[in-house]
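Entry 12.
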Amino acid sequence: MYDFLEGIVAEVQPGRVTLNVQGVGYLILVSGSTAARFAPGASKARIWTHLVVSDDDLRLFGFADRTERELFRLLISVNGVGPSTGLALLTGMAPAEVARALASGDEATLRSVKGIGAKTATRLVLELKESAAKLGITDRVTPAARDAVDALVGLGFARLEADRAVAAARGKLGETADTEALVRAALASDRRR
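Predicted 3D structure (tokens):
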């Protein structure tokens, strides 16, 4: 029904973004990596959406780009994998990591995400191995960003928290930012919370 929504980010909370679209606030459920890419009050933001309709509920899921949304749609096409599980996978791992794990048959990596058991991991790999490889999702992380994540982990951050902080810093500073600038921006952002 909705392909994307574009507006001003009114609020960002873990797992959700409220987007003000011409005076209407849309509550959008998002992955951790998507939430990290948006800041409240930012100028126009575009969120690619997927609407889930159930008997008594409408839930709008949002993604930073089309490829993450397509991966989510692939995940929920598997029997027994609902939208919450699909979002949990995309929160526990970067989209490129999920696609790589599916394409390579790495069930252990999938099981490392809370809520993904052995049967679900096996089913995901069996049904999506070829489709995930065709998506062409690649890890767009620069060497400087990888080093910044490692530095934050060394300072006591959890890996996922470090990934999010560096992704947010890259969004502000650009893709050419060096390791030191990324670490400083991530630490400054963490102090403001």
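Annotation: The chain has nine helices and five strands. Residues 143-192 form a domain with the Helicase, Ruva Protein; domain 3 fold (CATH 1.10.8.10).
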